């Protein structure tokens, strides 16, 4: 059976050839900052997380007379899209949607070929507005992507999969169920253990593994660099990441400790779920709240685990004190899971891992636009937005832009005057009613750029 075909289309210099090279795994297409380098269609065999397909790189789409060279290049691009099973339409997120992008989108909407919009060059804050603008193309939710850095490949996989996975006459192929690392229920759970020095992080991981895999001792700061260990918990793969203890920055003077702290930060970035380990003999300290805030700022799912519970004094009072301090000190995320464990005895470890898998599912969940807006209509009916200066703020609709962490875009008029308290009201409602309890939720406010919008 021939491979399905994917065509890449877009105006000049939006990164089509860079994406082509990324998917074929080789520098087959020339890449340069000068627009118009690609002229003919270039094809190659591509693989993306188990999906195999034929990828076609096309020339930059320009609105020129058909008899000119740019016009003939455009004809080649149109033919490539016509032959494809699905087309990837790239825009430059840093430049935003240009008039030529709108022209291409109008043409693609008339085509019989399914289209997946991609906001390329979306790394960093410079591409955020362009990602939002891409919704105006009328081709569905754009995928934030970076062909240069390989960001967004999992989202691209999920978008391509319905169009590219084929079934034999006798039924689905044996490898029809492809598991994404860290993104499917059976994928490895990337679990980082963080905390202050001597909280018992390495001891806890050793207890999980059932062996002295990591060096432990009474001295603080034994662990200097992050150590990743593969582990199976009830036939489910887990990648445990032990990290160096994090002290308050003002106390970190040693260069090696600074490097260790930076390495721990990278581990937090890499993880899906982060367990902040507290010492029950010391309770919750200001540095613990700073670490928790850092994890949430990075958008990671967070669990609080109180270690050394077997030697804790007045456990009920300690637990309630930690819970109260978390709710007060981390008001941006209510309902963080708080568990008690003992690295020495193994108490509470199964409950900790179960909670980690559960919160990863919540962190990775996507709510359909229909379900989301049915909830949204009820939320604003129950508590309408204020009218500062007597002028009404009109909230139009809500959409989930991405997962991991769940991020939403709220569209409306005069949203720049929407009080932060109302934004928190919506976020807290999303957590409470839609199953995102204890997960960092992000919400961006956006006014429509459509000149005909009101």
From TrEMBL:
Positions with a binding annotation for GTP 1: 10-17, 57-61, 120-123
GO MF annotation list: hydrolase activity
Keyword Transmembrane listed: no
Family the UniProt entry places it in: Belongs to the TRAFAC class TrmE-Era-EngA-EngB-Septin-like GTPase superfamily. EngA (Der) GTPase family.
HAMAP family per record: GTPase_Der
Purpose of the protein: GTPase that plays an essential role in the late steps of ribosome biogenesis.
NCBIfam families xrefs: GTPase_EngA, small_GTP
Protein name (Swiss-Prot/TrEMBL): GTPase Der
Species this chain originates from: Sphingomonas natans
Gene name for this UniProt entry: der
């Amino acid at each position: 059976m021939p491979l399905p075909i994917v065509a890449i289309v877009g105006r000049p210099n939006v990164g089509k050839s860079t994406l082509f090279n990324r998917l074929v795994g080789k520098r087959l297409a020339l890449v340069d900052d000068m627009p118009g380098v690609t002229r003919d269609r270039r094809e190659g065999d591509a693989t993306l997380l188990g999906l195999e397909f034929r990828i076609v790189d096309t020339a930059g789409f320009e609105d020129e007379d058909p008899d000119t060279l740019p016009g003939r290049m455009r004809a080649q691009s149109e033919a490539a899209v016509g032959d494809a099973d699905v087309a990837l339409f790239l825009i430059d997120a840093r430049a935003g949607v240009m008039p030529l992008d709108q022209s291409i989108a109008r043409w693609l909407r008339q085509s019989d070929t399914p289209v997946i919009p991609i906001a390329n060059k979306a790394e960093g804050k410079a591409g955020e507005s362009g990602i939002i603008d891409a919704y105006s193309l009328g081709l569905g939710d754009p995928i934030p992507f970076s062909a240069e850095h390989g960001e967004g490949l999992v989202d691209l996989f999920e978008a391509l999969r319905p169009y590219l996975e084929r079934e034999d006459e006798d039924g689905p192929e044996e490898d029809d169920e492809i598991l994404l690392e860290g993104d499917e229920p059976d994928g490895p759970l990337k679990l980082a253990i963080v905390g202050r020095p001597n909280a018992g992080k390495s001891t806890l991981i050793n207890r999980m593994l059932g062996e002295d895999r990591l060096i432990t001792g009474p001295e603080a700061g034994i662990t200097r660099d992050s150590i990743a260990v593969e582990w199976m918990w009830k036939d489910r793969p887990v990648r445990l990441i032990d990290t160096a203890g994090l002290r308050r920055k003002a106390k970190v003077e040693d260069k090696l400790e600074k490097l260790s702290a930076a390495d721990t930060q990278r581990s937090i970035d890499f993880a899906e779920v982060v367990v902040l380990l507290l010492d029950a003999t010391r309770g919750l300290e200001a540095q613990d709240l700073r670490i928790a805030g850092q994890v949430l700022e990075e958008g990671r799912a967070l669990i609080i685990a109180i270690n050394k519970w077997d030697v804790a004094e007045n456990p009920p009072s300690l637990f309630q004190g930690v819970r109260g301090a978390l709710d007060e000190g981390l008001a941006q995320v209510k309902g963080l899971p708080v568990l008690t464990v003992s690295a020495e005895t193994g108490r509470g470890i199964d409950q900790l891992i179960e909670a980690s898998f559960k919160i990863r599912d919540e962190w990775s969940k996507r709510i359909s636009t229909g379900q989301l807006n049915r909830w949204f209509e009820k939320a604003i009916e129950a508590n309408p937005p204020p009218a500062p200066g007597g002028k009404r703020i009109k909230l139009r609709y809500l959409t989930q832009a991405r997962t991991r962490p769940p991020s939403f875009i709220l569209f409306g008029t005069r949203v720049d005057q929407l009080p932060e308290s109302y934004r928190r009201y919506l976020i807290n409602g999303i957590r409470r009613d839609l199953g995102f309890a204890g997960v960092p939720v992000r919400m961006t406010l956006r006014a429509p750029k459509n000149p005909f919008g009101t």
